[in-house]
Structures are given as C-alpha cells and as structure tokens.
Amino acid sequence: MVPTTTTTDDQSWGAFTDAAPWVLDRSTISWLPLSHRLRSAAQAEVPRLTKPSRLPPGTRVITVAGRLGYALVPWALRKKRHKYADQEASRREVSLRLRGAAEYLGPTYIKLGQIISSGEGLFPAELVNEFKLCRDQVPAESWADVRLTVETDLGARLEDVFSSFETTPIAAASIAQVHAATLRTGEQVVVKVQRPSVSELVRKDLRVMAWLAPHLVGRIPIAALANPPALVDLFAETIVEELDFRIEAANMLDMATVLKTLEQDRFVVPRPHPKLVTRRVLVMERVTGFNFDDVAGMHDAGIDTEAVIRSGMIAFMEGAMVEGVFHGDLHGGNMLVLADGRTALLDFGIVGRLTGERRAAFLRLMLGAITNDVKGQVAALRDLGALPRDTDLDAVIKDLRLDQPTIDPTTLSGEELVKEVQRVVKALLGYGAKLPKELMLYVKNMVFLDGAIARLAPNLDILAEIGNISMVFAERHGERLGRELGVDPNAMTIDLEGVKASFGLDAQIESLTYKDLQARRDLIQKRMRDHVTK
C-alpha cells in the first residue's frame, strides 16, 4: 500500500518522493530554461558526427582500427580455415574478442557494449551475454579527478557545498560514476560526476565509428536490422544527450510530470537539486530500496512482486503511447523498489520521445497488434522509419507471409526454424528495413520487462495480462486515443485469437503463464542450436 502523507507543492505536478529534501519550483530552477535548447543542439550534432568522411578522422582511428584488427583478424582467419566446430563457437569467439576490444578502447565503446547487452532478441545471444560483463566492470576515476570536476563545475570548494562526500563511488559506469554525499544543509544526496574528457572522447569516437562502419558491413555478425552504420546512428542519437547532465535533470522533471499526469502513483522520481546541476555534475536526492533483482528481499518485506511488474508494464506503455515520453534504458540497476512497494526510477540519460507523426504511427502499431490489423502494423512501421517511405506494403506482407495462417514454431524442426528466420531477415534487409531509435528503446525495454517477469512473476498469465492492460487503456484513454487516431473507441475490439496466434498458440488455449512461454522458447532455441551444430 502507498502511504498517505501530506503532499509537498511539487507533488501536485510531479511523481516525487514523500520526504522532500527540497521542494522544486520550475519557475526558479536555474538550469531548466537551457535544457530544451541543449537537447535540440545535441540532436542537431548527430548528422555531422555520423557522416562518414573520405579520409580517416584523426589519429584516434589508428588506435581503434588497430585494436579491432587485433580482435577480428585472427577470428576471420580461423573462420576462413573452418577451424570452428560450428557457427555458435565462431560467434562466441568473435563476441569475446569484441568485448576485449571495447574494454581496451574505453568509455565510448564500453557504453556501446552496455547498450548491446540490453538488447536480447535484437542482437546475437553470444554478443549480448559477452557484453553483459561490461555493465559493472568499468574502473572508477581517481578521487583527485572527481574532486576537480565537482569543484570546477560547481565553482566552489567541495567542503563549502558538502559536509561529507564518499570517495569510493556507489557505482561506476562508462560515462559517469555516482558518489554518496551530504550537503552542508543536511540533505543526503547522490552526486553523479562525468568522467573527465569523456565528452571530447565520445565525439572523436563517433567520427571514427562513422568512418569504420561502412567497411564492416557484412564482415561482423552484429545484428540483422542493426548493421554497423545503422548501429552507429542509433548509438549517436542516444549518447549525445547523456553528455550534458542538465538534459538528464530536465528528463527527470519530464518523467515525473508524465507519471503524475497518468496518475501512476506506484512510481517516483528522485528530485534533482534546483541549483547544483551542471554539464558534468548532477546532485539529486538519495533514495534507498530493494534492487530490482532482489526478489527474496522483497518477498521477505511483504512486497507483492506481481503488482510491481504489473504496474511497471502499464506505466511504461502508458508513457510511450499516451504522453510520448518513456524511460529509455530500463534495467535492474536503474530501478529500486521502495519498502512500500513503489518503484523509484533512476538514471534518465536516455529518454524516448515520440512526437507528432511518429507518436501517431506508434499508436497505430500498438492498436494493430491487439486488433490483428496486419497492414496497419506494417504501415505504422513504415511511418516510424523502420521501412522506406516508398515501400510496397502489400509486397512486404506477401514476402513475409503475414497474410498466411500463423504456424506454431514448436511444431517446426530445427532446420525449418533456421530457414524461416533466414528467410524473414533476408526479406527485411531487401526492403531496407532498419530499427529507429524510439522503437529500439521501446523493444529493448520490453525485453527487460520480459526478463523481469521471469524473476518477479513467473506464474503471471500473459494472455490475461494482455487483456487486462488493454481494458485499462480503453477505460483510461480510449476516448483520447480514438480521437487522435480518428477511430471510434467503442468499435475497437481486442482480437485475442490474433494475440494467441502471434505466440503460435492454438485458439483453444485459454492461458499462458510466463513459465509456459519460456518453455516454448527454450524448445525452439534448442532445436535451432541442435540444427546449427550438426
């Protein structure tokens, strides 16, 4: 149960914690007026950073190319000589080598690896598993460098702002590290400090990546719909905004506002400090709770983990569909479950934003999924930028066999499964398909929530939840969404048979727990692995 407390003024417009260390007044926040221009400027920089140059961009390219060559040439020679027992062994080897290269090359490449590590289902499993090792193994900056950055950006001695400041970070990531501290005025805070020179290094590395990417097409098994140039574009769009913490602080206010507007009272956002936010330093209130993976701890505290995951799914989808704003990097380290069962969202460096035509396309994609409107979904993907504007939608539907009855994949042999995947990938690449930033962030988050269900609510009935969520949306937002899409909300009906078909289920099946779904996936993956290793 969420406790009943006296609300502070900023809780009237934002989903903030109850025990306010300070109260935010948007009209007096020093860094807020700049944030919109900073975000626009960051995105405007992306095309220049990712445009391939004819000549190598500076000496950094020598280091990067040399390290990638050191990683990939031995693998390529062994593969050419058929030294690997199977394709899986080959992918494991190249994934290991790419992780080693990323760690050697530093923050930019580690960050790219961390993004890939959250993309289960988007990237090869071997690459995802290898890059997961990059998540918590980033060495911290020296205390002297941290102190210098904080004092330079805040324009004051550390002791003049903080009564205590832990020299050992709570966490160290690729772009920044986080320290616990206490302000001179007594408030307990965390201080996010950007790594020295990382902003300049990231920009250099993006130019290098843009130059190298076209030369890597077809040479590295990265992903079907995220070939190296497309992956660089996606990466640049996400990372440029992370380099200015004033943008992140503004994202925190935006997300708090969205959650409050949607009446999502089971989520809170830490308050950023109204004065102590700069390009490289972000001071925010400290919150404590259970790690999102600490299922045993939550159960011992009497927290309903099914309620936690259920509210998470609804809040995430509502933010994207209704307000067009959603946390773009959900993972266990960015979420804390409070003692009262609410979830605190952390780290707002990456936030998905859907506006105008793209948000309308996203709404049509979601509507098509629950009403089984195949052509509507393909058209929506085109309008989101996943397919070229002049794509023949009927041809796509025919080539992908979307107009044919769905086949239960568990009835197929390993050879049939592999051939089907290859056929679909080849067809999509033939149409020039790619993964737009917002769709990639949304899918990546859905993959995380999928894994969270496995840990927090393995007995959750997936079919029932889809029905429940659809009903919640119809009741809360049906009239608004219908008006925006130009359809009668009363005429929209959930096609549960279509939903079942999307899972490859028989229409007679009434329930599907996550355990059942995972068993089906494991069977499919085993058959594909067994076929590949023959």
Description:
This protein is an alpha+beta fold and about 525 residues long. It has a domain at about 40-135 and about 200-240. It has 20 helices and twelve strands. The strands form three sheets. Strands 1, 2, 3, 4, 6 and 7 form a six-stranded antiparallel β-sheet that branches. Strand 10 and strand 11 form a beta hairpin. Helix 3 (about 85-105) runs antiparallel to helix 4 (about 105-115). The chain is globular and about 70 Å long. The termini are far apart. Residues about 1-5 have low confidence and may be disordered.
SSE layout and pairing:
Elements: H1 32-50, H2 60-80, H3 87-105, H4 107-117, H5 125-131, H6 143-154, H7 158-161, E1 162-165, E2 171-172, E3 176-183, E4 188-194, H8 198-216, H9 228-239, H10 245-261, E5 267-268, E6 272-277, E7 281-285, E8 290-291, H11 295-300, H12 305-323, E9 325-327, E10 335-337, E11 343-345, E12 351-353, H13 356-371, H14 374-384, H15 393-399, H16 414-430, H17 437-456, H18 462-485, H19 496-502, H20 514-532
Parallel strand pairs: 5-11
Antiparallel strand pairs: 1-3, 2-3, 3-4, 4-7, 6-7, 8-10, 9-12, 10-11
Helix pairs in contact: 1-9, 1-10, 2-3, 2-8, 3-4, 3-5, 4-5, 8-9, 12-17, 12-18, 13-14, 13-18, 14-15, 16-20
